[in-house]
Amino acid sequence: MRSASWSANSAENSFTASRTVSHSPRRAKRSSSRPGRCCAIRPRPVPWSVTSSGSAAGGLDIVSQTTLSVDPLAGMLGRCHRAHPKVSVRVVDPEQGPAVAHMVAAGQCELGLVDASVPTTDLRGMDLPEQEMHIVLPPDHPHPPGDTITSRELAALDLIVTPDTETRAAVDDVCTALGLTPRIVVETAHRAMIVPLILSGVGASLLPGSMARDAALRGARTLSNRPRLVRHGRLVWRSGPPRTEPHCRYRSCLRPPFKTGSGVFKSAG
Predict the structure, then answer these.
(1) What is the model's pLDDT at position 19?
(2) Closest of 203, 205, 208, 157 to residue 178, by C-alpha
(3) Is the pLDDT of residue 202 over 90?
(4) Alpha-carbon distances, residue 150 vs 146, 167, 224 (angstroms)
(5) How many domains does the chain have?
(6) Is pLDDT of 162 > 70?
(7) What's 161's domain CATH number?
(8) What does the DSSP assignment read for the chain?
(9) How much is the pTM?
């Protein structure tokens, strides 16, 4: 068993769910039967260099789980791009969290963003800021006025989920802790569909803060779960000196204000 990096917490109430690496038989089957789907990365033809202004130029490969690529990776890349505008970044989407650690350890990507519950060896890393996930409802949903929702109310919603993701596992964990089965109305691999489905009244979904804010601007209702649903992630890289100058510069750019560390990921609490 491993500790889930999802935690539900509040001043009066807290719990951390525990589950195996493969949360359901279906996820276990996909993970074991297709272990190398995202492990083939085309070599980069772009050489790296340092410009006359001192910024780096060249290419950098990053592998990130989908939710972490939305938030915080997008903001992190914006900060680094301003400092190193000539670095070309390629972001790879893995099938499962363990693939992130594998691809970084194998040297297929210089940096990785991974759920903090995924164990790894021989990788250095830093903790990412905790990320609260929000429940997003259709504009005319009958949920009472206010900006909060309980876990039991969440379990009673018609839900839109993505398959084989940590977000889906978080929904399962919340419902399992209550002895309930989630009410899944749509399961889609197309993340871009989620907000349009919510706005059309199909159901609700659990989304990272940036996606929830965008949905709210389009008329959706955004709620905070009580106790809060918080995700913990890690930025990881191989031990030893950076492989390229863009890797070196980006790693330095991304480092503050995150807490650094190495070895097995810290479980959420």
Answers:
(1) 33
(2) 157
(3) yes
(4) 12, 17, 9
(5) 2
(6) yes
(7) 3.40.190.290
(8) -EEEEEEEE-SS-EEEEEE-SS-SHHHHHHHHH-TTTT---PPP----EE-TTS-EEEEEEEEE-HHHIIIIIHHHHHHHHHH-TEEEEEEE--SSHHHHHHHHHTTS-SEEEEETTS--SSEEEEEPPPEEEEEEE-TT--SPSSSEEEHHHHHTSEEEE-TTSHHHHHHHHHHHHTT---EEEEE-S-GGGHHHHHHTTS-BEEEEHHHHHHHHHTT-EEEEEEEEEEE-EEEEEESSS-SSHHHHHHHHHH-TTSEEEESSPPPP-
(9) 0.71
The reply to whether 227 and 240 lie within a common domain is no
Contacts of 71 (CB under 8 A, 6+ apart): 131, 208, 209, 210, 211
Whether residues 246 and 225 share a domain: the answer is no
